[in-house]
Design goal:
five-stranded parallel β-sheet; Rossmann fold; 232 residues; alpha/beta
Length: 232
């Protein structure tokens, strides 16, 4: 989808469990607020009243009866509501939308993890989003197993995190594939993807995120990149 004049930007954070998305999103939002950049933070699933109810169902550890197809369709329903009611209006206002998970997670968790057919998921996503394509996806990456160990340190696992080690190995391997130019060329519906090394300290990762954003949109993100040493 071509970006129209005055339209905002959709920046997505992706990655396997425990890579630090929430932390880096919070740091970026602080920087955007300090710089006076109009923005909106959202997450998947969730972000609307309907989406929040779907999120509760999808992540409830007691819900062990959700089939793979039902899971995928619930994610899509939340996405359709979010795109229509929050993302498109914010982009129309010229805001930078910072989104925690989007289409890449569906490819990773429902296609690679659950084994659903990629073309079925692709068509369902096209229907749910109306063809919306992110302007940039920041793919945070850690060595296999490191992210889930971080997630375990936070406390009990939710339903998705309890899907088993083999499931999460498939998910992590999928996210690794997504960073390749060959995969991206075959999946233009996902937009440009930049891999970001998520190892090291929070400030190390923050600097890498700021550098990627600053190199792509210097007019907006260069001040954040230059000031990362003082907290973005």
């Amino acid at each position: 989808m071509a970006r129209t004049p005055g339209r905002g930007r959709l920046v997505v954070f992706e990655g396997a469990e425990g890579v630090g998305k929430s932390t880096q999103i919070a740091l970026l939002l602080d920087g955007l607020a300090s710089a006076g950049v109009p923005h909106l933070a959202l997450r998947e699933p969730g972000g609307t009243a309907l989406g929040d109810e779907i999120r509760r169902l999808l992540l409830d550890p007691a819900r062990d009866d959700v089939t793979a197809r039902a899971e995928a369709l619930l994610f899509m329903a939340s996405r359709a509501q979010l795109v229509e009611h929050e993302i498109r209006p914010a982009l129309g206002r010229g805001e930078t939308v910072v989104l925690d998970r989007f289409f890449l997670s569906t490819y990773a968790y429902q296609v690679a993890g659950r084994g659903l057919a990629e073309e079925d998921i692709r068509q369902a996503n096209r229907f749910a989003t109306g063809g919306l394509v992110p302007d940039l996806t920041l793919l945070l990456a850690l060595a296999e197993g490191a992210g889930l160990a971080r997630a375990d340190a936070r406390g009990g696992r939710d339903r998705m995190e309890r899907s088993g080690d083999e499931f999460h190995r498939r998910v992590t391997a999928a996210f690794t594939r997504f960073a390749s130019q060959e995969w991206q060329a075959a999946h233009p519906e996902c937009g440009p993807i930049e891999r970001v090394d998520a190892s090291g300290s929070e400030s190390d990762v923050r600097r890498r995120v700021a550098d990627v954003l600053g190199s792509r949109w210097p007019e907006t993100f260069d001040p954040l990149s230059r000031s990362h040493k003082s907290g973005y």
